[in-house]
Design brief:
heterodimer, A: about 450 residues, mainly beta, Rossmann fold, 6-stranded antiparallel sheet, 4 helices, 32 strands, about 10% helix, globular, B: 60s Ribosomal Protein L30, Chain: A, 4-stranded mixed sheet, 4 strands, disordered N terminus, palmitate (chain B)
């Protein structure tokens, strides 16, 4: 199903409120910059301590035969770079000249506009009705070409082409692989109890092109991507009690992999995709298990009378991070996949649950509760003073999920009675709300990198 | 670690203590073991036996929801009469199965709240069992925070969602 974009973005006041709440001091707070033009996603940028990279993405020329396409590829690129928090792209309305090739760029103009980089491009026809998007990236000060590439895609997938271009620009400039051309899964709930319609959805990383994977009258939760991005594991109550399903995204075919008595929850694929960590309570109370997906054999990892749940794999596949209330309130612990003693990971904050681990295994995002306020916090173990960085203002924020390059996170929050999703840069500088048409949205899960 | 172990043991002792308290209700079903027992329900639990239709007419049996304090799973005194009358009915009518649907408020993570809901369901199950309900008629399902009865972000609403619903099914 290819729908028209059901998503739009609303601007959100992050800076002053969040910073004052978090006690980060007034030095960081600045007046919000003007947003982009009114008909495209608008974000508010908190400029923080580090400078954001300035890039002008000039609207790409349409040089193909036939009617112009709906998608302006350069808009996709500009919004992606903006959402990352690393870049502060020039507003489209402030683009004063429209070069489409490197030779046409008048560097004095872009120097005057204080731009460090400029991207230009054009859309032409390719074989079989496809479109070819050629683009070039230049360093303004050095007047030097950094990239000159062409990506071909179907007319209907020009947003996908735009995301790939944004990835290439992001990687060329930051050295970190871009994660814009990725997908996200989430759960929607529409209606009022007891007539709630739940749906498991998959969409582009910016929320466009939402597709329904599963519809149910009973709760759905905890979508988890297979490392190849082809399958999702999730929890469904459609049989009356919780059960874990694994479903192929392309075909919709699915299997129940666990429907034992009690809780069947929190599935998480191992980094090599051969195993599934899960929570089962059939032996009396929730503990962490690992299922070998080929043989369906179960191995018990934790054995404690507390609630142990929400296992996530460390990138090396050798240990798990999970939530346990063995010390009273929920905190994060690590345990070897072979079992044995668990080690407590979090000590700051009354309540820490539902971790998401960055690709390098150094950052741990979690839902952190203090009193009645729940925010997204990140523990960075790469820093000597392993403090918590709080990324969201609360008060009912949960379910953080890192992008595969660790640069951004998605999380769930509420707006009155509605659940909404936010994307936030990993440094907390840029936060953007994804407003979906389907009402209550929750349980975001950022998918892996895609292969061309 | 030592501290947390001690805490855990303390928690276990608390759970055990709650279990004992329920047994006390069973051995002394006269309804006055707890000062907080609801006077309106004392009569029906004392009566000789229930009729099947009492399920929808009896003032105690019609109460099917047990509420919990924040992060707590013990059954408060005010609900002991409800536990007693339901366990009596369940024991008397083996053709009824009961599902104890555990729920949590919206705060915190969904999967952890599934665990909390199950804990509450288990607490009611053990309360009913201690009061004489046969275990094979009881089943616990946790919905965590997935089935809220209200969606306000306030203690008033949260306290309504921290609950176990007693759901009867006739075979």
């Amino acid at each position: 199903m290819r729908a028209k974009p059901l998503i739009r973005f609303a601007n959100h006041l992050l800076c002053l409120l969040a910073l004052s709440l978090l006690g980060l001091g007034p030095a960081l707070a600045q007046a919000p910059q003007a947003g982009l033009s009114s008909d495209v996603p608008t974000i508010v940028i908190n400029t923080g301590t580090a400078a954001q990279l300035k890039i002008a993405v000039v609207p790409f020329a349409f040089e193909a035969a036939g009617a112009p396409v709906e998608t302006d590829v350069s808009d996709v690129v500009r919004m992606d770079l903006s959402r990352s928090g690393t870049f502060a792209p020039l507003d489209k309305k402030d683009v004063v000249e429209f070069p489409t090739r490197g030779n046409d760029i008048k560097y004095a103009t872009w120097n005057l506009l204080k731009q460090q980089f400029i991207a230009v491009g054009r859309v032409t026809d390719a074989d079989g009705g496809a479109m070819r998007v050629e683009f070039e990236l230049y360093d303004v000060a050095k007047q030097e070409r950094l990239l000159g590439l062409a990506i071909t895609g179907q007319r209907s997938d020009l947003r996908g082409v735009g995301h790939q271009i944004a990835d290439l620009i992001y990687e060329k400039i930051t050295g970190l692989r871009g994660a814009f051309w990725t997908r996200v899964a989430y759960v929607t709930a529409a209606g009022v109890s007891p007539n709630i319609n739940y749906a498991l959805m998959v969409a582009d990383s910016d929320g466009y092109n939402p597709q329904v994977l599963v519809k149910s009258r009973e709760p759905l939760l905890s979508p988890s991507w297979s490392p190849d991005g082809k399958k999702l594991a999730y929890v469904s109550f459609e049989r009356g009690d919780s059960a874990i399903y694994i479903q192929e995204i392309a075909t919709g075919s699915r299997q129940v992999v666990s429907n034992r008595k009690g809780i069947n929850g929190a599935p998480a694929f191992s980094p090599d995709g051969s195993k599934l960590a899960l929570t089962l309570s059939y032996l009396g109370n929730p503990d962490i298990f690992i299922m070998d997906l080929a043989s369906r054999e179960l191995k018990r990892v934790t054995n404690h009378f507390s609630i142990d749940t929400e296992a996530q794999w460390m990138p090396d596949g050798q240990s798990l991070v999970f939530t346990s209330d063995r010390s009273g309130k929920p905190q994060l612990y690590t345990v070897s996949t072979a079992g044995g003693d668990a080690t407590r990971l979090t000590f700051q904050g009354e309540y820490n649950a539902k971790s998401s681990i960055s690709y390098d295994g150094k950052k741990f995002a979690m839902a952190q509760g203090t009193g009645n306020v729940y925010r997204i916090a990140v523990l960075d173990r790469s820093k000597s003073a392993a403090g918590m960085n709080v990324l969201s203002p609360g008060s009912v924020d949960e379910s953080p999920s890192f992008a595969p390059n660790g640069s951004m996170l998605l999380y769930a929050a509420t707006d009155g009675p509605r659940g909404v999703l936010y994307a936030v840069s990993a440094d907390g500088r840029v936060r953007q709300r994804l407003v979906l048409a389907d009402g209550d949205v929750r349980e975001p899960s950022w998918g892996p990198f895609r292969q061309r | 670690m030592n501290t947390s172990l001690r805490l855990a043991i303390a928690a276990l002792l608390c759970v055990t203590a709650v279990g004992c308290a329920k047994k006390a209700v069973k051995t002394q079903p006269s309804g006055n073991t707890e000062s907080t027992s609801q006077p309106t329900t004392g009569g029906s639990t004392e009566a000789g036996g229930y009729k099947e239709t009492d399920l929808t007419s009896d003032s105690c049996l019609r109460q099917r929801v047990i509420y919990f304090d924040l992060d707590k799973t013990e059954i408060k005194g005010e609900f002991q009469a409800q536990i007693a009358c339901h366990s009596k009915f369940i024991r008397q009518f083996p053709n009824y199965n009961v599902t104890l649907e555990g729920n949590a408020d919206e705060r915190g993570s969904r999967e952890y709240n599934l665990g909390l809901g199950e804990r509450r369901g288990n607490a009611v199950q053990s309360g009913l069992s201690s009061a004489g309900a046969p275990g094979n008629q009881l089943n616990v399902v946790s919905y965590g925070e997935e089935r809220p009865t209200c969606k306000d972000h306030s203690e008033d609403c949260w306290s309504k969602n921290r609950r176990v619903e007693i759901v009867y099914t006739k075979n």
